[in-house]
UniProtKB/TrEMBL annotation:
It is found in: Endomembrane system. The keyword Signal does not apply. Keywords: Ion transport, Lipoprotein, Membrane, Transmembrane, Transmembrane helix, Transport. Its main location: membrane. PANTHER family: ION CHANNEL POLLUX-RELATED. It is a multi-pass membrane protein. It comes from Planotetraspora silvatica. One of its GO terms (biological process) is monoatomic ion transport. GO terms for cellular component: endomembrane system. The chain crosses the membrane at residues 21-47, 84-110. This is Lipoprotein.
Amino acid sequence: MSRATVRERLRYWFDNIMAKGTGALIGWLALLSVTLILAVSGLVMWLTPDEVNAHEGWTGVLWMTLMRALSPGKIASDTGTAPFLGLMLIASLGGIFIVSILVGVLSTGLKGKLEELRKGRSRIIESGHTVILGWSEQVFTIVSELVKAHASQRGSVIAILADMDKPAMEDAIRTRVGDTGRTRLVCRTGRPTEPADLDLMNLDAARSVVVLSPQSEEPDAHVIKTLLALAKRAGDHPPVVAAIAASANMAAARLAGGPGVHLVDSVDTISRLIVQSSRQSGMSVVCMDLLNFDGGEIYLRSDPALAGRPYGETLGAYASATVIGLRTAEGVMLNPPMDTLLGTSDQIIVIAQDDSLIRLAGDAVAIDEEHIRDHERARPGPGRTLLLGWNGRAAQIVRYLDGYVPAGSVLDVASDHPGAGDGLVGLHNLTISVKDCETTDRYALEALGVGLYQHVIVLSDDRHHPHHADTRTLMTLLQLRDMQATLGERYSIVSEMHDENNRALAEVTEADDIVISDTVVGLLLAQLAESPHLSEVFGYLFDSRGSEIYPRPADDYVAGGAPVAFPTVVEAARRRGETAIGYRLAAGSGEAPHFGVVLNPDRSRLVALGSGDSVIVLAER
């Protein structure tokens, strides 16, 4: 191999200097400037000694040379011998060269620094903040809900780390969420799966961490890798909340996250909600009302004064809160047996507007015995359900539906999805048939004889982008509505959608229930981010075991049209072994945002519940 030439060595040396960054370049320019000034000053003192005396000695010469180097225009006013003027010209030309390079270096360095700041790579210095790792459609729901939860808090902070441009994240949230009030938003660009990037978020001082599933082919792999990165970090970290898209990955996620992680099974939660909504109209609205921060929220309360009393007697114990269950050493129970005695360490689970408003009632509210009804509820017989569309969670929805319906029920699946009907094994109560059908085609829907069914479930097609899938769902709903109006048929319709913004459009279709899957998961993550200890409560609420939420005919509890206070409704439900938590007025079922649902009603206010209205209860199936 031939030896490197002097030119190659100089070029290699120069490349290494350039690679060291702006600081190194400025240092070399400063050294070059000092060398130039000293060299020119030395030549002036050697070649033109008379000029040295004229400029107050060698210090004057140094200052004069420095000024010519920094401000070449000063040479125009110089006088003296030709050698002196020539040396000053050299100093000025060298100064032009050095200053030009310095301006370019500073401009490039400043631009790079601004670009780095624009990307958001500085470590945040906050405490008590909520950290969101990753980016998906759920981030807008979570941020919006956390802003509501922190509306009365000054200086609250939400910090987001995602592999996106910082201004792009801020613009998207500003557009979708709007004004964040007292809550400050801090965005950082980085990969949540990299421990070095996680250090930017000051996790040791955070209040909670939310891990989002990205919109990719394998979202759970990203979540599990992020949980591993969190677990690998040295030191403590706050409670972690994460959503898992596939139930089969829950065990791996628990192992990766450790005991401090609270996992939300997205598919399982949405599947159960769709099934419950198909059987009980209004179920999704009630759950959304419980999950958001607009109205009543769930709290755990310890009141030693109630120890030793049966659960049934505690239902009227609070003046402005509704009791829904207990948390004991054995775990959470919603609507436990009415004779369950409260232990001294047990906590009461209540719904209240704010924890500061939870207080024990003074005198017991009078019960209107005259208007309490005790109708025997007839158990429904076998029914027919039509499932329009198919996606990755359809098989799980069918299995849950099989556990709800009585034996002999029929389910017809109509879809052009190639996987329609796959995985439907081991069913006990349902008889399944699969039909090929384009669910947006009016004639294909009419050929199904939709009027023969009591319930219709419309699923989102996962072969399409979420926005396009929602558009197809809207088309199907519009066709069904028009068929109902034209043919005079009546059946309940429950649909699944992705984007909350499409709910307003879907209201035109007058569907009985619309389950916004991304919104429900986002609301649940926001609730757990604020109160991780509620994980057991919501897990019980969406579990098919034990009591669940049911909107049931108000006529079964109180006399129709008679004004009664809510404690009377609570007592009527208690006698059935149920816990009443609110009601739904049919007159307001089309009015957003609560759609007629009233949870934790005012105890002193009289309400007349008539035909079509519902009492919302926690009860066994």
